[in-house]
Specification:
The structure is a single chain. With 388 residues, the protein is of the alpha+beta class. Among the domains are: 106 residues, 2-Layer Sandwich (TolA/TonB C-terminal domain); 113 residues, Serine Threonine Protein Phosphatase 5, Tetratricopeptide repeat (Alpha Horseshoe). 48% of the residues lie in helices and 11% in strands. The chain contains twelve helices and six strands. The strands form two sheets. A four-stranded mixed β-sheet has the order 1-6-3-4. Helix 6 packs parallel to helix 8, helix 8 packs antiparallel against helix 9 and helix 9 packs antiparallel against helix 10.
Length: 388
């Protein structure tokens, strides 16, 4: 059950925070035969997830690497990937440029030129998003025509749709997020949360571009598909990862419904007056594991204290919503807070989380507090507001 705080108008904060690109955890290890004994440190850095160290090792190795080796193309691509993850986009560009200029004439030609093209385009995009966007989109579209999946393409597709979102280019964000989703869909269960994240972003971007009932329905379809995967997931970690995407979709649905309902009644509005709210699917059991205390929860309400709702010039007039997962102690104070959904921007969740020290669960008077409990680990609630 989600506890909801009614709609209120935004306060004085005027900030816009860029969305965070998902961290990509992968292991990329170059062959470790006798000819590659000098890259042991590189392999160890990659295995440890220390890509800055890996990129530094790669630069040292590449300077004297035998470019007649049959593994030259693969090594250049993997070094480019490590540099990209490390944030050294200039180095990633150099590896990609080497493959573009020499890949076809190497003793063993580059057998993945489409991936190499994505590497170069992705590095150039990160160096100069405005001039590099179209080239990256073309490279990704070419890659989607080929089978399989690779780490470079996944990161590049994610960077593109996050960049379009941050630029408030809603139509472009909808299309690039759809493209990313089509790639993540190839990855099976392990990439399902990121597939749904892209789908949620696509539906949200389309809504921001041109709000309609159709966008609400599209988001509801994504939500229900996530619930289906939650019900079929066997591992708790997978259930929780999918659950976070479900709550993000549900938070968007709340904001979408409020917007369509409120603004369709304004004079001159082209938005349909009929808001057909859908009955959403629900997980068959709790997503997050909690304490085993069998005492019933005390009745009461969550007091947010003097919380100032944030504002944003970009999203002014759009309904916002934030869904939090809180842990409460015996006094009703918040001991931990996790953002499950924040729309239309992460800034609104930040403002709320920064105020959780003021939150208190106030138990209803007249209860036997020894027979019920205030403490809980998974108190999920939503705050709705109108962006000022």
């Amino acid at each position: 059950m989600v506890y909801t705080v009614p709609v209120q108008r935004g306060g004085q904060t005027n900030m816009f925070k860029l969305a965070k690109v998902a961290i990509f955890a992968a292991t990329v290890v170059i062959l470790a035969g006798p000819a590659f004994a000098d890259i042991k440190a590189y392999n160890e850095a990659v295995k440890a997830g220390d890509y800055k160290a890996a990129a530094a090792e790669a630069a040292s190795i590449w300077a004297t690497f035998d470019k007649t080796s049959p593994d030259t193309a693969a090594v250049a691509r993997e070094f480019g990937f490590s540099s990209y993850v490390a944030g050294d986009f200039s180095a990633a560009h150099n590896y990609g440029k080497f493959l573009k200029d020499n890949g076809g004439t190497l003793p063993k030609p580059d057998d993945q030129p489409a991936v190499s093209s994505v590497l170069l385009a992705a590095a150039d995009y990160r160096l100069n998003p405005k001039s590099g966007r179209d080239n990256l989109l073309d490279a990704l579209n070419a890659r989607t025509k080929l089978p399989g999946l690779d780490n470079i393409t996944l990161l590049a597709a994610e960077a593109l749709y996050h960049g379009d979102w941050n630029d408030a280019a809603w139509q472009q964000a909808a299309r690039s997020a759809d493209l990313a989703a089509s790639l993540f869909d190839r990855g099976g269960a392990s990439l399902r949360p990121r597939y749904y994240h892209a789908q949620v972003t696509a539906a949200a971007a389309q809504f921001l571009a041109s709000p309609s009932q159709r966008d609400y329905d599209a988001m509801a379809e994504v939500h229900d598909a996530i619930v289906g995967d939650i019900n079929g997931a066997k591992e708790q970690q997978t259930r929780e990862a999918l659950g976070r995407e479900m709550y993000q979709a549900r938070t968007w649905l709340t904001a979408m419904h409020t917007f369509i309902h409120s603004f369709s009644n304004q004079t001159g509005s082209l938005i349909s007056h009929e808001v057909k709210e859908r009955r959403l699917e629900s997980p068959k059991r709790a997503i997050f594991q909690g304490m085993q205390d069998r005492r019933p929860l005390c009745e009461g309400r969550l007091d947010l204290g003097n919380f100032n709702y944030p504002s944003s010039a970009l999203f002014r007039g759009i309904p916002g919503a934030v869904t939090l997962r809180l842990a409460l102690d015996d006094s009703g104070a918040v001991t931990n807070a996790e953002v499950l959904g924040s729309v239309p921007s992460e800034i609104f969740a930040d403002a709320l989380v920064n105020s959780t020290s003021k939150f208190r669960w106030r138990a209803k008077e007249g209860q036997n507090l020894k027979a019920c409990r205030v403490q809980r680990e998974n108190f999920i609630f939503m705050v709705e507001f109108l962006v000022g």
